[in-house]
Design goal:
The chain has 175 residues and is an alpha/beta fold. It has a domain of 96 residues: Rossmann fold (3-Layer(aba) Sandwich), CATH 3.40.50. The protein has four helices and four strands. It has a four-stranded parallel beta sheet with strand order 2-1-3-4, sandwiched between helices. The relative contact order is 0.12.
């Protein structure tokens, strides 16, 4: 325009073509630190057998870490990789103990999804109870460590204030 403004118009009636992104499927396995590696390998094998019936799996991720905390680096990497369209897990609790639906909704907004292949059975429920006891112990330990850290920090601060409140020591020799 004469004023220097630029107008951009989209063609009317022209449908926008959205490029279809290729499907990238990842299998995610996790066990708590208290469990053994055999459990992790067994979980991976069951998921690979399941996926072999029709999925082209791009990656298998194995992780050892608590489902209670938010510091499982492999899981975080999968969450933040927008190229992954499907994450296959054996049970919901293999992703997280709390907030599974939050992850599911977040991924759905990004046109991604999680597929859980097995609901919890009786034997799994017993193992799940053991895992929950371990998770509870992890939570209590975490909070105790935070409280202890706050106390230590408070004691350090008190010592520093006491040192600063002392009169300065003269460095000059006797006169």
């Amino acid at each position: 325009m004469e004023t220097g403004a630029i107008l951009i118009t989209e063609p009317v009636g022209q449908p926008q073509v959205i490029a279809e992104r290729p499907e990238k499927i990842v299998i995610y396995t996790r066990v708590s630190p208290a469990e053994n590696k055999d459990n992790l390998d067994g979980q991976a094998k069951r998921l690979q057998d399941y996926a072999a019936k029709g999925y082209a799996v791009a990656q298998l991720v194995k992780e050892i870490g608590s489902g209670v905390n938010d510091s499982c680096p492999q899981w975080l990497k999968l969450l933040t990789d927008p190229t992954i369209t499907l994450i296959v897990v054996e049970h919901k609790d293999r992703l997280t103990r709390f907030g599974f639906n939050y992850f599911e909704q977040l991924l759905k907004l990004q046109e991604r999804r999680i597929e859980v292949i097995r609901p919890v059975g009786v034997a799994d429920a017993e193992r799940g109870q053991e895992d929950l006891v371990q998770d509870f112990a992890s939570i209590v330990t975490s909070f105790c460590a935070r409280l202890d850290g706050q106390r230590r920090s408070g004691r350090r601060t008190e010592r520093l204030i006491a040192e600063l409140a002392k009169p300065p020591v003269s460095s000059a020799g006797p006169s």
